[in-house]
Design the sequence.
C-alpha cells in the first residue's frame, strides 16, 4: 500500500516540480482509493476544472492500469 | 459518432444541469455520484441525471465528448463544471449558486424538477 502512495507521489512530483505540497493518502486502506492533495503556484488563478485536469493527466497511467480505482482531488494555489 | 453519442451531446446541450452518474437519484450506486447529486440539490439546481451503468458505451462516448476521465460529470448549460470534488467544493464555497445564477438566471431554482434521461432509449422521465 505504502509503495503505491509513494509511487503516486513520485508521479505527481515529476508533473508538479514546483509544488509546495504533494500528498497522497490511501483513503480506505485497500490500496486503490486515494486522496490526492497538491498545492502549487501553478494553480494560482487557474479554474478548478483545469487544476483537476492537470492532476488527472499526471495520474492517467495508474488510472488506466486500474492501480487507482477511485481518487479524490484537492488542489490549492499558493497565492 | 453512435446514436448513444448523439443522445449524450443532445442531453448536454439541451438540459440546464446534467449529472452523469452511476445509478439514479433513487438508487445511487457510487458515493462520488451521491456527493455530486447532493451538492447540486443543496444549490437548488434543476438536475437531469443520466445513468452511465447500463452500457459501457455510455461512459466511453461521454469521456470522448467531455475529455474528462471519471464519473460523475456535471454540466451546466452545455459546459463541464467538473466531477464530484469540484462540484462539492463549489457548493460549499457558494460559487455553485453563482454559476447557476449566471448561466440559468436568478430564478433557476423556482419549481426546479429532477429528470432522468435514458440515453440508450432516448426516453426522458
Sequence:
Amino acid at each position: 500500500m505504502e509503495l503505491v502512495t509513494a509511487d503516486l507521489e513520485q508521479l505527481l512530483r515529476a508533473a508538479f516540480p514546483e509544488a509546495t505540497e504533494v500528498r497522497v493518502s490511501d483513503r480506505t486502506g485497500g490500496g486503490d482509493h486515494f486522496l490526492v492533495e497538491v498545492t502549487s503556484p501553478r494553480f494560482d488563478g487557474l479554474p478548478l476544472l483545469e487544476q483537476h485536469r492537470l492532476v488527472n493527466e499526471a495520474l492517467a497511467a495508474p488510472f488506466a492500469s486500474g492501480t487507482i480505482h477511485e481518487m479524490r482531488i484537492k488542489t490549492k494555489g499558493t497565492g | 459518432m453512435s446514436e448513444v453519442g448523439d443522445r449524450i451531446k443532445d442531453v448536454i446541450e439541451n438540459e440546464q444541469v446534467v449529472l452523469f452518474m452511476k445509478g439514479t437519484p433513487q438508487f445511487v450506486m457510487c458515493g462520488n455520484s451521491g456527493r455530486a447529486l447532493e451538492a447540486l440539490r443543496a444549490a437548488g439546481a434543476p438536475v437531469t441525471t443520466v445513468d452511465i451503468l447500463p452500457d459501457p458505451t455510455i461512459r466511453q462516448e461521454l469521456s470522448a465528448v467531455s475529455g474528462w476521465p471519471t464519473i460523475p460529470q456535471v454540466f451546466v448549460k452545455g459546459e463541464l463544471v467538473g466531477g464530484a470534488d469540484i462540484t462539492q467544493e463549489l457548493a460549499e464555497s457558494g460559487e455553485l449558486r453563482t454559476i447557476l445564477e449566471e448561466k440559468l438566471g436568478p430564478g433557476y431554482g423556482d419549481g426546479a424538477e429532477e429528470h432522468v434521461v435514458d440515453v440508450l432509449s432516448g426516453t426522458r422521465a
Q: What stands out?
A: The helical segments of chain B are 3-14, 31-42, 56-66, 84-93, 95-104. The CA atoms of residues 2 and 61 of chain B lie 8 Å apart. The first strand of chain B starts at residue 17 and ends at 21. Chain B is about 45% helix and 20% strand.
